Q: What sequence folds into this?
């Protein structure tokens, strides 16, 4: 293949101009400024991710982003925002980002449990912390991604959460990120969760649209969890304007004998790319990444993950369920790397998709890259339609077709949802799944089985 | 069953780890100057006495090739190939297009005898039941030296000859089908092949004919610094059937040699082609010195309704293998199959797999790929299954397993599964594991040595694929696997 150096698109040119104009006012001490400069130089060299890059082959951001929206500068707290916040039923601490900017007034910062410290990312960036560059960079396997580089260069705010060693949080901590505007904006935010040894915590990340305009969102969350910690991450991406284009990156470095689990529900999210970069920093660690994608219309959901088994005795479980209707497109690209010394790795990766009608598309690419011989690694990928026999069984018992389908789909999604440990959260996720299925049933789009 | 027995004996005689086909035949050969220019292309075409249209076709390919760059996406590493430091044509002085075996250089006959390939029809006939006979096209460096059983095949209407001969004698068929499955500009190596291909086999099975015997081509690279560029074209007309086997070996040499072949299969309505390969090119030594670069484009087109193409391959040789035998399932109800065992040892690198492109309605495909990596080798399965929007009812089952022996090797799986129709059912599963300790214990407890136990378990692991091979090859392949793995335990 010849080396292609394409002309810069309008969006890429606009981003360069935006970075040049904004870099002075974007928060950050000297180290951070250097980090931003380097990241942007990296991004400029690569350009927006496009389909000729293997890791972005099914999500061509270059053609999706025809124009770069103006950068969101400040939080616009609208009635829509208040409405959404009032409707959200969540226990525990709530940290609110509006258009990527942390808004303490809307957050519950008082009465935070002992050992839990919350700052805005902007504060952390200017604080001159010594570990900031390391924390922001995350696992090595993430260093090459130009979507993430753009986030590093332009991140404005987010939250910086520190949980002291040994602390067990009884209630989840929620980061609620709303895109509020009535005009198109580009939102760059990043949050960091540092969990010390033995921490037990649940972090909820909600990304919703609360305005009329589509947004271009580039969000990232970084986890660094200590030995023997047990951290669960639950993400909900929903209620976005269909034209929204989003990249959500998750970077995790997990200590020894620890547990880290992430679950993501995606429905009504427009075009979304979720990417996971996970590194095992210690042995005997269990990591699980799971998710449910509910797609309709012309929605597009891309899940791309890289599990880097650097050390022996790691366990990884990935399970993603996609239900795709309309002209929706689902993408799953999983890559499990087992390095030469990572003996006794136990990996299992699964992607299952149900296509509800013609026009729906699923791309699966579950990849294994293995250099150690004493491992058990497997992956499975299926694409099919709703099982006619299951439908028949239910309909023979008097359920109308639409309801029978909803039930089958609910069970299909449920297999992944049940990994959400917190009961209230699990109910919340399941309620969203049911609402989506209900809406589908109401519009009586019945699949052409 | 003398032929089979002969194969067994032949395999028995190669009982050590060493590559036994590594001998060199001393021959007088004619070859043009090293390097690749338009003149080389003209030289090859002139040597083959080709018609004008063929030369133009080659030159066109050559001009396109010059504008292309070598692909780098595969998971293999090798120093850059100097395409100007190769011979593109090498033919034994005696023996090019012989009328009968008597005209073939005895040294070549001796070579094939050593390799266990029967070239004399009388020899084969002795005591062989007619259905067990195998017709052989023997390709030595750049030329086909002999094709057996031509007359008998012709009686059935089957054309089996070298591609050079087909260009002379059946230009209408060649013109109609050549490069319709693998276009000239398909990829870098296919374009190179189009410009400089020297020989290979041509098979045409007429309507409704079941080919009376197995067809087989045996490729041998002998000369130093020579690239082998073979081209095979198989056409199965409506309702016909053919089983084709391919074998290949090369001498042990210190330098790397390039083998860039193109194989095209065309199956029309209700036709079936079974294509089996036992690839045993010289793999290089344990440190990766020498060996063949096997960069091959193989593709089958199920053009007709209910047609079927089945690829079976056993890959044990080559320093680098880069090949993806594929099926384009164009006809409604057509079927593609791919069975593969790739065994790599020493410093071998394998990047192989398949593509199943579902275009027609109710098309089905099955992929069984087993990779075994030992020593310092790397084995990658790369495959694609895709269903077009109109390919309703497409069905695929893929199973790829890898077995690692030792901690210096790598096994990778890169499957692409693309479904654009809701009625497609695609299943893919893959596992990577090490031979179970309990399995080893069980075998050793019953008195098998460690190596025997490994061989037994490995053979069990690859059985699914071996069962698909024609009997004669299955025995040979089974033996090959044990050979390739010897010395890898401990």
A:
């Amino acid at each position: 293949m010849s080396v292609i150096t394409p002309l810069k698109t309008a969006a890429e040119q606009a981003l360069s101009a935006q970075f040049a104009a904004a870099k002075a006012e974007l928060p950050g001490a000297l180290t951070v400024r250097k980090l931003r400069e380097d990241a942007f130089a990296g991004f400029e060299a690569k350009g927006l991710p496009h389909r000729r890059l293997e890791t972005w082959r099914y999500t061509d951001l270059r053609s999706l982003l025809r124009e770069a929206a103006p950068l969101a500068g400040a939080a616009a707290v609208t009635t829509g925002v208040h409405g959404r916040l009032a409707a959200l039923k969540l226990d525990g601490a709530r940290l609110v980002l509006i258009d990527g900017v942390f808004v303490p007034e809307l957050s519950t910062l008082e009465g935070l449990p002992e050992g839990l410290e919350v700052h805005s990312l902007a504060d952390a960036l200017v604080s001159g912390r010594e570990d900031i560059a390391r924390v922001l960079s995350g696992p090595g396997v993430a260093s090459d991604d130009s979507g993430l580089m753009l986030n590093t260069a332009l991140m404005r705010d987010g939250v910086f959460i520190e949980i002291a060693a040994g602390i067990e949080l009884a209630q989840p901590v929620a980061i609620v990120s709303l895109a509020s505007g009535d005009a198109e904006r580009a939102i760059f935010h990043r949050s960091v969760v540092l969990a010390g040894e033995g921490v037990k915590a649940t972090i909820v990340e909600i990304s919703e649209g609360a305005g009329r305009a589509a947004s271009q969102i580039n969000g990232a969350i970084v986890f660094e969890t200590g030995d023997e910690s047990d951290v669960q991450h639950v993400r909900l991406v929903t209620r976005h304007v269909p034209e929204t284009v989003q990249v959500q990156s998750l970077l995790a470095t997990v200590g020894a004998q620890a547990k880290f689990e992430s679950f993501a529900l995606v429905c009504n999210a427009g075009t979304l790319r979720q990417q996971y970069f996970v590194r095992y920093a210690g042995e005997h660690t269990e990591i699980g990444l799971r998710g449910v994608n509910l797609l309709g219309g012309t929605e597009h959901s891309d899940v791309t993950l890289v599990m880097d088994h650097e050390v022996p005795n790691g366990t990884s479980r990935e399970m993603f369920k996609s239900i795709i209707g309309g002209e929706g497109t689902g993408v799953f690209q999983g890559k499990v790397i087992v390095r030469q010394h990572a003996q006794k790795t136990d990996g299992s990766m699964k992607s299952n998709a149900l296509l509800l009608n013609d026009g729906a598309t699923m791309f699966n690419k579950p990849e294994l890259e293995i250099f150690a011989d004493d491992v058990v690694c497997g992956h499975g990928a299926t694409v099919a339609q709703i099982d006619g026999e299951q439908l028949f069984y239910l309909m023979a018992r008097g359920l109308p077709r639409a309801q029978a389908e909803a039930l089958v789909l609910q069970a299909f999604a449920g297999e992944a949802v049940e990994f959400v440990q917190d009961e209230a959260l699990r109910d919340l996720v399941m309620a969203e799944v049911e609402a989506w299925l209900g809406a589908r049933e109401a519009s009586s789009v019945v699949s052409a089985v | 069953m003398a032929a089979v027995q002969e194969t067994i004996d032949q395999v028995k005689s190669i009982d050590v780890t060493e590559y036994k086909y590594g001998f060199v035949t001393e021959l007088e050969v004619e070859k043009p100057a090293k390097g690749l220019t338009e003149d080389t292309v003209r030289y090859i075409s002139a040597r083959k006495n080709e018609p004008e249209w063929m030369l133009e076709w080659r030159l066109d390919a050559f001009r396109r090739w010059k504008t292309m760059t070598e692909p780098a996406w595969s998971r293999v590493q090798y120093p850059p190939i100097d395409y100007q430091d190769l011979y593109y044509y090498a033919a034994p002085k005696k023996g090019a297009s012989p009328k009968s075996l008597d005209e073939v250089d005895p040294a070549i006959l001796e070579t094939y005898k050593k390799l266990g390939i029967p070239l004399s029809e009388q020899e084969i006939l002795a005591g062989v039941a007619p259905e067990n006979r195998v017709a052989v096209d023997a390709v030595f460096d750049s030329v086909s030296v002999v094709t057996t059983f031509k007359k008998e095949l012709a009686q059935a209407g089957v054309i089996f000859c070298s591609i050079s001969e087909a260009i002379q004698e059946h230009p209408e068929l060649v013109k109609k089908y050549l490069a319709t499955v693998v276009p000239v500009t398909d990829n870098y190596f296919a374009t190179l092949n189009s410009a400089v291909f020297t020989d290979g086999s041509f098979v045409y099975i007429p309507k409704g004919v079941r080919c009376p015997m197995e067809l087989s081509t045996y490729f041998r690279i002998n000369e130093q610094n020579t690239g082998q560029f073979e081209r095979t074209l198989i056409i199965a007309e409506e309702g016909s059937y053919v089983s084709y086997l391919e074998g290949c070996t090369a001498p042990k040499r210190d330098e790397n040699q390039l083998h860039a072949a193109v194989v095209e299969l065309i199956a029309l309505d209700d036709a079936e082609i079974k294509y089996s390969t036992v690839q045993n090119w010289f793999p290089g030594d344990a440190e990766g010195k020498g060996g063949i670069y096997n960069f091959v484009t193989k593709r089958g087109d199920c053009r007709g309704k209910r047609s079927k193409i089945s690829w079976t391959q056993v890959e044990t040789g080559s320093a680098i293998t880069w090949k993806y035998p594929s099926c384009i399932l164009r006809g409604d109800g057509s079927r593609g199959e791919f069975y593969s065992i790739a065994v790599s040892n020493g410093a071998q690198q394998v990047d192989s797999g398949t593509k199943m492109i579902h275009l027609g309605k109710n098309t089905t495909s099955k992929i069984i790929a087993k990779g075994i990596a030992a020593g310092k080798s790397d084995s990658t399965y790369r495959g694609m299954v895709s269903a077009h929007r109109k390919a309703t009812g497409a069905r695929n089952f893929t199973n790829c397993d890898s077995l690692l022996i030792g901690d210096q090797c790598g096994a990778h799986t890169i499957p692409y599964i693309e479904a654009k129709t809701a009625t497609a059912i695609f299943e893919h599963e893959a596992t990577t594991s090490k031979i179970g300790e309990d399995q080893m214990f069980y075998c050793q407890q019953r008195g098998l040595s460690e190596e025997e136990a490994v061989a037994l378990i490995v053979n069990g692991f690859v059985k699914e694929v071996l069962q698909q091979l024609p009997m004669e090859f299955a025995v040979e392949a089974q033996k090959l696997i044990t050979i390739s793995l010897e010395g890898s335990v401990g």
